[in-house]
């Protein structure tokens, strides 16, 4: 199994408070890795380290190294713009731009100069919408506002938007927490399809979701990674008693 | 227990009702005040939009007119009245200062009836039938005779919108003041808009939180509260005395007004930029947009309605500004329409101020009329701001 990303002894500080302690984790390529744990355990913080979104946060310091295809993304020579073109992100709350559906998906290819002609751009947009399973629903109204879609459709639009720049890794930060069960099911199906081409790391609150979509699960607690392993093993036969406690619902 | 709850329940409802009635009363009072203002302005100002002329048909004009235009006017009127007139002065007194030139123009191109504008005093008598009019009884008799003969016509006072200031109330207009206002506002906008918007963008999007930034922000808020006359003094010493710019001009006036709206513009733009949610900024950054791309592809375009609304409202604010312009000499008597921003000009509110000081009774209605025009412009600008805000309101997912 190929390694796509590797975190080595990653610690994160927000000013004086330490949010993550020495996290080391290997992310396999074309595979869904789930990060679970109670609220405030640091799983989202860890996720945001993987495309350096934490850089935006004032006085956030990241120690340790994170490798993407063997290259440290925290090296001084790395440009965050290039990094984020390779590591896409989908957020907890759907956040389409207040532009048309077409322009939402076309934004990334435009700024990265991925399409030479208008026809190229259209092809990328259509392909991305198809991959995100949204094409059938929006093909007749590509020029209506993205914000006029339903919550689940907006989230799939955000997924289409992030895959339009052909990233290698997609980070998903609780992508279904604002959605109803039917929309959630659609997104989960989509994640299952996407893993053939992309490496996916998903933060989730729902253990059932982690169990359904992921192949590897990492359990975080109080800023530390307690246990990591193949999802079926972790859920049926956890080694650590805190993992056991969390998945059986004793705390959370 | 139930009893106690009942009593408190009734008391809360009573407070509700009292509060609602007080609030309705306040709104009613505000509306009443507004209505009084508007109705008194309209009552006083309608006369500015209406004026009287004497219309004489071509066949009633005697041949062999005297060569002096004023004498010719007297000759036409006396021959039309067919009653002897004791004093020529009594006739001349009834007509506007430009009656002579109106006649000359008509003689050159005699089309339709001859129109002679009435003087402000005659105009006032016809509009309000004052008893204490400065017109003498003989003069009033001639006016009445003309009216009985049916040659006194009421018409829309187009002069009010096409000419500049004048010593003669029947000849005044707001056109040069309007053009002056327009030039001054345009200068102020061109100077303040780019600086204000760029300042706001830098402070909200780029500047890191620091004591310095806080200090700048606090002082911008303080500047917004500085009385405008202080800016007039600053303009006088900075632009006119130090830089030597020509006084009484839209250039200096615009620069002073730009200083006045700069803080408001920065505050409005900052508010518009801050209303773009963090989630949208995060989305742009996560797509690999650079900071500047995030700001100029997303944050700024999405806040344009807010920025426009702020700009229009600040324009409306300085459209009515008078005091600072007095200090930089825009209070001059301007007859001609200014041809550029370096020519002496006046603005609408300053024109209103000037007219309000004039002793002639006819200037009172011109003052009120000009105020009505100013109010119409303000209403239009505010309406545009409201429409912009409603039409381009963004929904964030």
Lay out the secondary structure.
The complex is a heterodimer of chains A (252) and B (397).
Chain A: E1 3-14, E2 17-28, E3 32-36, H1 43-49, E4 60-68, E5 71-72, H2 80-86, E6 87-90, H3 101-111, H4 118-131, H5 135-138, H6 151-163, E7 169-173, H7 181-194, E8 199-203, H8 207-213, E9 216-221, E10 224-230, H9 231-236, H10 241-247
Chain B: H1 2-45, E1 50-56, H2 69-81, H3 88-92, H4 99-108, E2 114-117, H5 120-128, H6 137-148, E3 152-156, H7 159-162, H8 175-206, H9 211-224, H10 228-242, H11 250-274, H12 278-286, H13 291-319, H14 323-327, H15 348-356, H16 361-391
Antiparallel strand pairs in B: 1-2, 1-3
Any descriptors?
heterodimer, A: alpha/beta, Rossmann fold, 10 helices, 10 strands, B: 397 residues, mainly alpha, MetI-like fold, 2 domains, 3 strands, 67% helix, elongated
Shape of chain A: globular
Number of alpha- plus pi-helical segments of chain A = 10
CATH topology annotation of the largest domain in chain B: MetI-like fold
What portion of the residues of chain A fall into strands of 2 or more residues? Answer: 25-35%
The ordered string of helix (H) and strand (E) elements of chain A is: EEEHEEHEHHHHEHEHEEHH
Question: Number of DSSP strands of chain A?
Answer: 10
Low-confidence runs of chain B (pLDDT<50, min 5 residues)? none
The helix/strand order of chain B is HEHHHEHHEHHHHHHHHHH
Structural domain tally of chain A: 1
E-strand count of chain B: 3
Structural class of chain A: alpha/beta
